[in-house]
Write a structure and sequence with these properties.
Helix content is about 55%, strand content about 5%. It is mainly α.
Amino acid sequence: MHLNPYGEGAVKLAADLANRPPTSAEELADRCRTAGMALELPVTPHDLDATLATLAAWEEVVDAADEPRRAASLNQMLAAASAHPRLTDHAGSGWHLHYRDDRQPLGALLSSLIAVGTALHLAGRGMHRLRRCAVTDCTAIFADTSRTGRQRYCSQRCANRDAVRRHRARATG
């Protein structure tokens, strides 16, 4: 049984898609399959357009100036993607909850998945656990899933680059 298929995985998929937007329906389908999604319908250019619109709205959540604005932006996404939760055993993967209707096109499915997954991530881990990398010239988005909730960088590479920059600044100053 899946306890929460909408949490961490959904937010990480959203960050991956936002950081490197897909350029075709085929690429979108491949990346969703790689993330473990079972696609029930063929993926179309309309799904790509809907996904890019969802990602634009999601970036407003990421970049919100404070928690109330973040919540308001996310609530708009949730309202747009709303459906009654239901139990499903699609693809024989075990019974779990879906917060969407049956047999939705991928664009609608991702809208629901990203909105609900982000809400569960932020409500469960903290409203501050979705952000952009702290390195000034990096705009990558990441979901902070660290134990302490103090992750500042999108990757170890950026953390190392910033540490080297700070070290050099101290050595010359």
